[in-house]
Amino acid sequence: MLSTLITSKARIKVIKYFYEGGVGFAPYVREIVRGTGLEINAVRRELLKLSKEKLLFEEARGNRLHYTLNVKHPIYFDLAAITAKEIGIGGELYKKRKKLGGVKFILMSLNFFLKTKEKSPIDLIIVGDVYLSEVKSIVEKYQKNLPNEVNYMVLSDSEYKLLKDRRDPMLVSILAQPRSIIYGSYQKFLNI
User: Fold this and answer.
1) Per DSSP, what are the bridge partners of residue 108?
2) Topology of 2-69 in CATH?
3) Closest CA to 114 of 70, 155, 173
4) For 34-80, how does the pLDDT look when each residue is reduced to its tens digit (9 = 90+)?
5) For position 59, what pLDDT does the model report?
6) Pick from 25, 61, 19, 17: nearest CA to 42
7) How far is residue 109's CA from residue 118's CA, in Å, rounded to a whole number?
8) Under DSSP, is residue 133 helix (H, G, I), strand (E, B) or coil?
9) The whole model's pTM is what?
């Protein structure tokens, strides 16, 4: 998905690396080289371009330059929503969506994806006729690498519509925060 928008493979790797690290992630150049598997000159070139566009901030700490994502950048959440479909549990759910059954849409909290301090009662919502065993195996695989439990909700179309029509407080709180629709259209998400 990012490859259709960004032509530089090195830039895509660097962006994914930072978003995978989450909020507050501040690696220095050699860490980025090791984490992305890119040549040091390619990493430096991309860091320079992303810093120039103010998507990344650089900060000198001792004799090293550390880089962090600019959370106030206008496209910060847009890039996070796209990246969430390619890496981590969101990427896995997107790739295996056909094995999950009749999925209408998958929604993920960007607070969960970005590892922010703000916690949501539900990190993932999957709507449709879904094979729970498939969802459970994907969640358990990623649960091993995460410090907190992945809170997810699987709903049928009618259950989702009922909660939405009732303006269920938990569902409203999830829908009010930054989110990424991993699979499905925004129209389905609103109208199901």
Assistant:
1) 124, 180
2) Arc Repressor Mutant, subunit A (1.10.10)
3) 70
4) 999 999 999 999 999 999 999 999 999 989 999 999 999 999 999 99
5) 92
6) 17
7) 10
8) helix
9) 0.84
Q: Tens digit of pLDDT for each residue in 25-37?
A: 999 999 999 999 9
Q: What is the pLDDT of residue 144?
A: 83
Give strand ranges (E) for the chain.
56-61, 64-69, 101-109, 124-130, 152-155, 179-183
pLDDT value for 189: 65
pLDDT grade for 3, boundaries at 50, 70 and 90:
low
Place of tokens 């629709």: 181
* Residue 5, token pair as written in the block: 């928008």
- Two structure tokens written together for 176: 């009010």
Number of Cβ atoms within 10 Å of the Cβ of 60: 8
Question: What local confidence, expressed as pLDDT, does residue 52 receive?
Answer: 93
For residues 155-182, one letter each, b for 16 or more C-beta atoms within 10 angstroms of the residue's C-beta and e for the rest, the string is beeeebeebbeeeeeebeebeeebbbbb
